[in-house]
Amino acid sequence: MTLIDTGPFVALFDPQDAQHSLCKDILKKNRSPLTTTIPVLTEAFHMLSPESYGSDRLRDFVLKGGVSTYYLNSEGLERCFELMEQYADHPMDLADASLLVAAESFNSNKIFTLDRNDFETYRIRRGHRHIKFQVIS
């Protein structure tokens, strides 16, 4: 499974985005199922703007099963807030925190993101260990 962040969604569904071609190539080469979170989708729809063609295409992609969605429960949301506080010196937003929680929940470390610096800093808790993300960008 590959987690997907906001940046690739925006780039994939906005042909004017500077990273559009790169993200299309990465998506074509990806062989594992994509998963994201509601905070990531919220951010992507906000950045694409609700009335845009890109927003329509992203909705179709989600509805046709191009990506599955991880939903935060109260424990997951609490973990997000804990992570946001932990990474206060390297500000983490809710979307990034939700991806880290999903990674911990699914025992996965592969992420498709354009925010290489952020996700190379974050660590996924696995028992007493903390492991790095495998960043695809």
Biggest sheet character? 5 strands, parallel
Helix content: 40-55%
If helices are DSSP runs of H or I spanning 4 or more residues, what is the number of helices? Answer: 7
Task: State the secondary-structure class.
Answer: alpha/beta
Record the strand order, biggest sheet.
3-2-1-4-7
Name of the CATH architecture: 3-Layer(aba) Sandwich
Q: Briefly note the CATH topology name.
A: Rossmann fold
Top CATH class: Alpha Beta
General description of the model:
By secondary structure, the protein is α/β, with parallel strands linked by helices. It has one domain: 5'-nuclease (Rossmann fold). The protein has seven helices and seven strands. The strands form two sheets. Strands 3-2-1-4-7 form a five-stranded parallel sheet. A two-stranded antiparallel sheet has the order 5-6. Strand 5 and strand 6 form a beta hairpin. The mean pLDDT is 95.
Features:
137 residues; alpha/beta; Rossmann fold
What does this entry show, briefly?
The protein has 137 residues and is α/β, with parallel strands linked by helices.
Question: What is the topology?
Answer:
Elements: E1 2-4, H1 6-13, H2 20-29, E2 34-37, H3 38-48, H4 53-63, E3 68-70, H5 74-86, H6 94-106, E4 110-112, H7 116-121, E5 123-126, E6 129-132, E7 134-136
Helix pairs in contact: 1-2, 1-3, 1-4, 3-6, 5-6
